[in-house]
Amino acid sequence: MTEDFMLDHRCKSYPLAAQPCRAADIGRKNWNLLAGDLPLPLAVLRRSALEHNIAWMQDYAGRKGVAFAPHGKTTMSPELFARQLAGGAWGLTFATLYQVAVGVEAGARRVIVANQVVCDADFDALALLLERHADLRVWFLVDSLAQLALVEQWAQRHPDAPRFDVLLEMGVPDQRTGCRTLEQAVTLAQAIAASKAVRLGGIECYEGGVANCDSEHDAREVTALVRRVVEAAKACDAQGLFAGEEVLVTAGGSAVFDLVMPLLRMQGLSKAVRGVLRSGCYITHDHGNYARFLQQVERREGLDESLRPALEVWSMVQSVPEQGLALLTCGRRDISYDIEMPIPVHHVPRGTRQVNGAPADWKISALNDQHAYLRFDASMPAPEVGDLVALGISHPCTTFDKWRWMPVVEDDGAVSGAVRTCF
C-alpha cells in the first residue's frame, strides 16, 4: 500500500520558506494556486476531473463487460495507482520491471507488462517479486523465438524459479513489436506451450499505432488488427496451446479504445475469455491529442460527455519584450512537447483570482529550457508581466516525468492534496 511522503524545499516548486510537511497535511496550509502561495511553474492535478475520469472509465469498462488494468507508466504515481485500484481496476499495466515494483508496492496484485522482457536482471526481479508476494500474477509479452530462448536460458540457470506467465503479442507491419503473421504467431505459441519456463496465458495487441484521428480510417485499420488477433487466438485455442482456465485477451490505448471491444469480448474459444482494457492517459486526459481522439470516440459511442482534462502547468508572464510576444516562466524542463506545443487554457490577470479562458489567438510557438514563447495578436490587449497563464497538455506522459510531486487542487485553486511520481 502507499505511504505518506514528505515535501520540502528539495521538491521543485515547493516554497523555499515553508516548513516541510507530509503530503497528507498539505491541505492544512490553506495554500491557493491563484494566490501566489507556491512558486511557478507548477504542474497541478484537478481533483474533480481526476475523480470523474477514474469513475467514468471504470464504468465504461464495466458497461462493456471487460476488465480494466490502466497503464501506470503515464503517471508513475503510487497515490494515483491506489486511487485507480480503489476505484475498481482489475489490475495495472506497466512497461518495465522497475515500474512493476512500484505498482506492486502500491497494492497491485494483477499486472500486465505490455512489453517484452529480455534482460536477466529483469527476470531476476520478476522472480523475486513473485516469491515475495504469493498472491501476485504478472504476465509479460513474447513476440519471438529469440526472446523465448533468452527466458529459457535464464530458467536453466535458475531451476528453482517459477514458470513465468506470458502473452503472445500480435503486431502490425512497420509498427512496434509483435508477431507479423499468423504463421509466425502459431509457431511461437507452440514453442511457448512446449516450454518449461513459461505458460501461455493469452494474447495481446496495441492498436494506437494505426490510428490517425480519422474515424473511418481508424475503424478500418483497428478492425483489421482485431480480426488478425482473433484469428490467431482461435488458431492457438484449436491446438490447445493456452494454459489455465481462462484466456487473457488485452488491448486498448487511450485514443481509440472503443474500437477494440469486439476483440476484448470475443467468443468462440474453448475456454472463458477475460478481456482487459489498459488505457493509461485517461486519468488526466489532455487538451490536445487525446481530446481530439475522444471527440471521435464520443461520436461513435453516442456520448454527451466523457473524460475531462485534469493536468495543467501554471506559469507567469515574466516579460513582454515586444508587440505580439510574451515570455512565460515554463519550458522544456516543466512540460511535455513531444506531440505538439502546450496550449494556453486559462489567464488570470495580475493581482486577481479571476480565471478567464485564454484568448483563442494565444499560441505557444517555441520552448526553451525555462521559457515558453507566447504569441498573441498585437492589435489586441497584451498579457502583462505578473499575469498567470495555465497551459494545457497534449499527451500527458512526458509532463509527469518532469515532476517528482504535484499538488492536487480544487476547482477554486485551493491545494487539497499531493501526489508523488517515481520515474
What does this protein structure show overall?
By secondary structure, the protein is an alpha/beta fold. It folds into two domains: 6-46 and 307-420, D-serine dehydratase-like domain (Lyase, Ornithine Decarboxylase, Chain A, domain 1, Beta Barrel); 47-291, TIM Barrel (Alpha-Beta Barrel), CATH 3.20.20. It has helices at residues 47-64, 78-86, 97-105, 120-132, 145-157, 182-194, 215-238, 261-264, 289-301, 397-400; strands at residues 6-7, 21-22, 42-46, 67-68, 92-94, 110-116, 137-142, 164-169, 198-204, 246-251, 272-277, 311-322, 325-328, 343-348, 356-357, 363-367, 372-375, 388-392, 405-409, 415-420. Strand 10 (246-251), helix 8 and strand 11 form a beta-alpha-beta unit. The radius of gyration is 23 Å and the shape is globular.
Reading the helices and strands in chain order gives EEEHEHEHEHEHEHEHEHEHEEEEEEEHEE
Strand residue percentage:
15-25%
What's the CATH superfamily of the largest domain, by name? Alanine racemase
CATH topology annotation of the largest domain: TIM Barrel
Cα Rg: 23 Å
Overall number of structural domains: 2
Q: What is the first-to-last residue Cα distance?
A: 18 Å
Uncertain segments: none
Helix content class: 25-40%
Number of DSSP helices?
A: 10
Shape, please? globular
Could you say which structural class the secondary elements and strand pairing correspond to? Answer: alpha/beta
Q: What is the total tally of β strands? A: 20
> Regarding CATH, which class of the largest domain?
Alpha Beta
Largest sheet: 10 strands, mixed
**CATH-defined architecture of the largest domain:** Alpha-Beta Barrel
The residue-averaged pLDDT reads 97
